[in-house]
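Chapter summary example.
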Amino acid sequence: MRSTILIITFLLAAPSTFAADPRAHTFSIVARDPATGELGVAVQSHWFSVGSVVPWAESGVGAVATQSIAEPSYGPLGLALMRAGRTAPEALKALTSTDAQIDLRQVAMIDAKGNVAAHTGRKAIAAAGDQVGVNYSVQANLMRNATIWPAMAAAFEKTKGDLADRLVAALEAGQRAGGDIRGRQSAALIIVRGTPSGKPWTDRMFDLRVEDAAEPIVELKRLVRLQRAYNYMNRGDELAGEKKWTEAMEQYRLGAGLAPEIEELPYWVAVTLFTAGREDEALPIFKDVFRRNRDWVEVTRRLPASGFLPDDPAKLQKILNQAEMKP
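The structure predicted for these 327 residues follows.
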C-alpha cells in the first residue's frame, strides 16, 4: 500500500498541462447497486469519444467520472487510492488538493462500500453542478439549464431494474431536461461486478461506447440490449459445458429473444446442441438460420476442420440438408 501511495504522490506532483486536458464538458452519473455491489458510470457529451476520457471503474474498488476540463489521471489514480484503502471522499480530496486547475475540474467518485464524493469547480462552465445521493452522484457542466442533474438524480432514484437500466434512465432524464447546450455526440456506459473474480477482463459486465452519433443515448440503449443478449448466450455456453441443458436453453432463449435480428446467436446455439448429440433440437434452428442468411451454410462446411462440429460427412450433410428444406 505504501508503494502505491508514493507513486500516486509522485504523479500528483507533476504539473497539469491545461492545453492537453480534454474539454469533456458533459453530464454523467457514478453509482453502486447495493443489492449486487455492481459499480458503474454512464455519460453523454457533445465531445467525440467521451468514453475514452470520463468513465472509470474497477470491480470491488470503485468508479470515477472525470470531466469539464478533465484530468484523465483522476480515473486511474482515484481507483488506485481506493484500492489502497482510501474512501471515495478521501481519494477525491487527495487528488483535488494538489491540482492547480481544480477550479475547472468536475469529478465524482464512489467506492465499493457506497461512499460518494463529488467536486464541481467554481470556474466550470455554467450551468454546472452536482448532486450526491445514496449510492450515487450526478454531475453536469455546460448544460442548457440547472435542472439537468436534479432530473438525473430523480430518475435514478425512481427507476426500477438493474444498474444498467437506472444509469441509462438518468442519462435520458438529463437529456429531456435540456442536456448539453451544444447538443449531442457521444455516450458511454461501464458496469463492473460487485465481487472481483481475479480476472478483470471478465468483471466488466458492460463496457460500451458510442463515439459519434446523432442520438448517442438511443444508440447506447441498443448496445445495452445487445450486451445483455450476449451475456445470456455466454452464460448458456457455460451451463452447456456443465451439461446443464435445461438451464442452458433458458439462457439461450433469453439471449435470442433480446436480439432476434442477429441470426448468429441461434446459429451457435444450434452448433452447441448438435455437437452435444441433441440433433433434433439443433436442426430446426439451423433451418431457420439458413433461411435468413445462406452464408451460414458455407460457415457450417468449414467448422468440422476446426473441431466445432463432428468430422462426420453424414452428420454434416444432415445439417446442410436443412438449407434445402421448405419453410
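To summarize the output: The chain is about 45% helix and 20% strand.
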